[in-house]
């Protein structure tokens, strides 16, 4: 199944308050532009970090739970941040 894509930390924090799922039907993950900021917003919104970002891993990935214990993921595609920064710089001239 395709995963849900959320583009901002505010949208992730907005998922707080969902009723806990009773069965696993799919894996939801967010690909925010700033994963660390997104996880900080989750904590501010009452969620908890289940698996922290591993600075030694080759990719940015973490799990978090909202207050209803729904577990979701934050993922950053390797190289995506650098590609987006280069594209933004090029568009500014």
Could you explain how this protein is built, in words?
With 93 residues, the chain is of the alpha+beta class. The chain has a single domain (9-92), classed as 2,3-Dihydroxybiphenyl 1,2-Dioxygenase, domain 1. The chain is 30% helix and 19% strand. It contains 3 helices and 4 strands, in the order αβαβββα. A 4-stranded mixed β-sheet has the order 1-4-3-2, with helices on one face. A hairpin with a 5-residue loop joins strand 3 and strand 4. The relative contact order is 0.21. Mean pLDDT is 76; it is low at 1-10.
Estimate nothing, just give the exact number of structural domains: 1
Proportion of residues in β-strands? 15-25%
Query: Rough shape?
Result: elongated
The number of helical elements comes to 3
Percent helix, as a range, is 25-40%
The largest pleated sheet is described as: 4 strands, mixed
> What is the fold named in CATH at topology level?
2,3-Dihydroxybiphenyl 1,2-Dioxygenase, domain 1
Question: What CATH first level would be assigned?
Answer: Alpha Beta
Q: Distance between termini?
A: 40 Å
User: What order do the helices and strands follow?
Assistant: HEHEEEH
What order do the strands of the largest sheet run in, or round the barrel if closed? 1-4-3-2
How many DSSP E strands? 4
Category from helices, strands and their pairing: alpha+beta
The stretches of 5 or more residues where confidence is low (pLDDT under 50) are 1-10
Mean pLDDT: 76
Rg on CA atoms, Å: 14 Å
Report the CATH architecture: Roll
